[in-house]
Write a structure and sequence with these properties.
By secondary structure, this protein is α/β, with parallel strands linked by helices. Helices cover about 20% and strands about 40% of the residues.
Length: about 110
């Protein structure tokens, strides 16, 4: 039985599929101590995205990624689910213009 998908709040309009954009997301729920960062890094690299993922002091996880909007949307769908031990309750999403200041996808500390 599928659990309900996490809720989402979005800032700015969703981009066209091939448009290069920056996705900034803050993931809420049980998302620390469940391999969320490592698995997000794997998912983003598999999609060919650049950016970072890091834990925040408030027990959320922050993700910034750049690439084609269609691939960013695939990452966003994954962020709503996360790894098996995670329980995502909400994802804050902001679509931004790309900054082109990232070369790879990494876990930041």
């Amino acid at each position: 039985m599928n659990e309900p998908r996490a809720s989402e709040s979005v800032s700015a309009e969703s981009p066209a599929p091939d448009e290069i954009r920056r996705l900034h997301a803050v993931v809420h729920g049980r998302v620390q101590g469940v391999h969320f960062r490592r698995d997000t890094e794997d998912a983003a690299r598999a999609l060919g995205l650049v950016g970072f993922v890091r834990n925040r002091w408030d027990r959320t996880v922050e993700v910034a990624a750049e690439g084609p909007a269609s691939r960013l949307k695939a990452l966003l769908a994954w962020l709503h689910e996360g790894p098996p031990l995670a329980r995502v309750t909400h994802v804050d999403v902001t679509w931004q213009p790309p900054t082109h200041d990232l070369d790879d996808f990494e876990v930041r500390w």
